[in-house]
Records
---
Amino acid sequence: MPYYQFHIPSDSPSAGLKGEIAAAVTKVHTAVTGAPARYVNVAFIELAPGNLFVADQPVHHGRMVGIIRAGRSPEVKHDLITGLADAWSAVTGEPRDRLALFLQEVPGSMVMEYGETLPEADFD
């Protein structure tokens, strides 16, 4: 279910590390949530230099939007987002304080995988 989409400058070192980043993201997600690796989706959008900004300043480090199923505890979500940031930094060598990560939650009923709508999560 999770869908992690990274926006990265095409001239950044991370552009050449997509496979390693995807593996690290999958490892973090499965370790933190217990979800099977086959459901972890990771996508990359490469942007030409000068097409990624914060306010009016160009950004040279990645940005991530992650969509996860609603219902996880605040502790799990904290472990997930910090684990993803640490994994990104470990693979790319980019400092954590230059990366921006955003997690969004959606109900299971709003996700279809392999032809099936997901059940609502019961993580308790």
---
Amino acid sequence: MSDLILIVDDARFARRIERKALEDAGFENIIEAKMASEAFEIFKEKKPELTLLDITLPDNSDLTLLKRMLKERPDAKIIMNSAIGQELIISDALEIGAKDFITKPFKEKEFIEKVVRVIKNV
């Protein structure tokens, strides 16, 4: 599949797991960022179809990057993810405009189902 997907996570192993799940599902056009500042520049320049965004990054530990991305592109498809399964953060992210939320560790099948659903606007 040719849709560009941006994975934003400071943990290399998390990026690797997400990339492998996406590649196993047939996604080939994947880019990565490990810092919020880098992710925002890529987001503006490359305009990914989907962004997988970790809540906690070394230079962004709340929903600020999500807000910046949605201000830049209100129609952006962003799935938040975090090892923190707090209901308040999940509801805040969805209220702000995230399309879905994935709690790590995730089950690959559920992860891909959410990715496909968000990309296809289902």
---
Amino acid sequence: MTPEEIRQRSKGTLIERMGIEWKYARYGETLAYIPVTPAHLAPNGYLHAATVVALADSACGFGCLVSLPEGARSFTTIELKSNFLGTATSGDITCKATMAHGGRTTQIWDAVIINEMRSDIALFRCTQLLLYPK
């Protein structure tokens, strides 16, 4: 899926509102980033945790979408977890998501989010339930 296809599919969604940009989404891997603005910060002046989670979950979600096995039509997130290690107050935050498990009924995705200094600011893991036509 090209960045333009992702942008078109994301029109009017949280992904668009958050300003998530895409480098690529291909089988088993995605790369996305957010140019951090004051709207992405918490009242304490640091990056809001929800900004990081939205970026990571979106990157994993599009990765799952382009990695669906034959016959699956969609997915839904059934579990997610984040560990926060650092922050950012400006610049870009970048998320690389990779599929750790690609089964017939579930996928597990891992993501690492870094700041412009290339420091890890979060580790993220989610489980996706794959949906098939009834």
---
Amino acid sequence: MLGILTALLSGALMSVQGVFNTGLTKQTSLWVSTGWVQISAFLVCVAAWLFTGRSKISALAQVDHKYLLLGGVIGAFITVTVIQSMSALGPAKSAMLIVIAQLAVAYMIELMGLFGVEKADFQWRKVIGMAIAIAGIIIFKWEK
């Protein structure tokens, strides 16, 4: 249950953040706003680290698969693409397409067992679920 609530909170926060970042970009620029988002996130992480146990930063150098260190780089591009998509499509359409892309890519990662994720068996019900979600986007976007 906690996982479900956390995922719902994450989705809600991503939508609000996307709207905030898009508004900030309109008043500054794409890279200024993206930089601010990343710097402010870093500062929050440093503060949380100071108050929650201070595990060793040197552990980063010992990570087995160095590609795992690219999360922050990917995060910068996530911020940029969310801003651009929300600006072009609006928050609702953008969020729906983002979620569909997340589902599709996450399922492909599971099917192929990429990045250390346990390989999953193909299931038609998951494909049908994604197709229903895509149909939902088409219905949502449909104009008379």
